[in-house]
Design brief:
One of its GO terms (molecular function) is acyltransferase activity, transferring groups other than amino-acyl groups. By secondary structure, the protein is an alpha+beta fold. The chain has 6 helices and 8 strands. It is globular, with a radius of gyration of 16 Å.
Length: 187
Amino acid sequence: MDMGEVFLRRLSRWQADGDREELADLYVAAYEEPPGEEYRNRERFLARLAEDVQRPRFDMVAADDEDGDDDEPAGLAYGYPLHRDGSWWRGFVGVLPDEVEELTASGKVFALAELMVLPEHHRRGIGSRLLERLLSASGAELAVVLLDPANTVARAAFEAWGWDALGELRPATGDSVLHVLTRALPD
């Protein structure tokens, strides 16, 4: 595969909302789903995105491949600062560490809501570049991500990028327990 240059660009909440159908197509293409699951997962992604773009200080970064023959990004990352009231942590299994509560209350925790790279662009460093660009502008001291326990590939990547396990969280939606990983961010 040609290792053409990849360009990163920020998208505003309005651009993200306006491009939501294309972003949902990227989501489906980035995650190989069993036949029949694509539609349901696409709809879930669209619902999450519609909610997330409304969050204060929502941020999104896309990776565009200069050799691409269409306008579809090679990858995408987005997230937002956690609300200071700590509601994001509802469902945390066990006791949330005091320092995490304090950082949340001070508005210094950034949630990575989504990181995706098309399979044909894996192993090119795009995921780590997207992540670094997104987090570098967050103003946060701590980043947090929720991972499906079955996604061992993602977990290995995050651990290689310096993320540590914090615990588990059971979402209010009643979905299965998710792993919580965090990473301290430089000043």
